[in-house]
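Narrative of accomplishments. A recurring question from our advisory board has been how the design workflow behaves on a single, concrete structure rather than in aggregate. To address it, we present the structure tokens for one chain from the evaluation set, followed by the sequence designed for it. No filtering or post-editing was applied between the two.
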């Protein structure tokens, strides 16, 4: 942890203590699967079951639930896929991509699939989504979640996204890149400068690939659960072509933010939010 905090202190200066405080346990949060249930159905069931919960100002389909995760996972609603347990910050990238019916969308690094399911939901089940995942074990988890959430029309492929055929072209791409996880770090997290460099190399490879797979005029959302600039703004500044532009994200009421390059968003870790980075790029 200390090597990570030294790095965070060098980057964020005074804000580092607030970041350190935010590296803590968080309540359970979930996203309602609007293909199977409405917010009213889920909240009514929680009222009956005696679960207390709170709404999220920027997302009508999100809830904060004040109950142990095991109890929530034991509800029939959970088992039926009426909602998906997902951190609040991780709900932002799919919202930023604004998936629409008929659009071809690539979720490049998709497992376990929370964001794929959210993209599917947001498009009313009508976007043409390809979900790619390299790790065989995590791919099985992705398929399980897609099935439970009823995201039946997603094409899931177990493959290194860097080897996808350049002939393929997508209207929109989500690259929720593998990263150091510095935004979700706990005291047990292992971080080294060497590991950071390894992640950056992987991110660069995937980002260059995403740019080749995106249609001219298409939208790319790049996100990580890291607050380290090397994995985020600095990488984008180095790799994006001159013609790429940042499309600022709409304001998200109550989301705690860190200083971030213009047009990008870095969520500060708090007792409610994981640290996260999101950028929406138009090619
Ligand atoms: N988007 C996922 C979600 O919301 O559930 C989380 C993705 S996680 C941050 C990154 C994922 O990328 C991991 O499952 C990892 O196995 C996968 N991955 C790493 N390198 C990859 C590659 N070259 N091609 C495809 N998937 C890759």
């Amino acid at each position: 942890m200390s090597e990570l905090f030294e790095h965070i202190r060098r980057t964020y200066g005074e804000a580092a203590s607030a970041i350190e405080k935010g590296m803590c346990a968080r309540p359970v949060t979930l996203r309602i699967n609007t293909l199977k249930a409405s917010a009213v159905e889920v909240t009514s069931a929680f009222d009956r079951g005696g679960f207390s919960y709170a709404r999220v100002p920027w997302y009508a389909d999100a809830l904060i639930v004040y109950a142990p995760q095991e109890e929530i996972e034991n509800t029939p609603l959970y088992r039926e896929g009426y909602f998906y347990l997902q951190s609040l910050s991780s709900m932002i990238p799919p919202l930023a991509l604004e998936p629409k019916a008929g659009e071809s969308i690539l979720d490049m690094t998709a497992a376990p699939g929370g964001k794929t399911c959210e993209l599917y939901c947001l498009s009313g089940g009508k976007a043409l989504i390809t979900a790619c995942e390299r790790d065989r074990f995590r791919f099985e988890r992705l398929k399980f979640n897609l099935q439970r959430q009823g995201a039946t029309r997603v094409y899931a492929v177990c493959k290194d996204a860097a080897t996808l055929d350049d002939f393929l072209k997508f209207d929109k791409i989500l690259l929720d890149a593998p990263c150091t996880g510095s935004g979700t770090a706990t005291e047990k997290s292992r971080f080294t400068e060497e590991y950071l460099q390894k992640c950056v190399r992987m991110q660069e490879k995937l980002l260059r690939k995403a740019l080749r797979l995106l249609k001219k005029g298409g939208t790319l959302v790049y996100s990580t659960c890291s607050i380290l600039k090397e994995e985020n703004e600095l990488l984008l500044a180095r790799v994006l072509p001159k013609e790429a532009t940042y499309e600022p994200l709409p304001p998200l009421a109550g989301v705690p933010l860190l200083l971030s390059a213009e047009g990008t968003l870095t969520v500060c870790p708090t007792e409610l939010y994981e640290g996260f980075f999101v950028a929406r790029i138009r090619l």
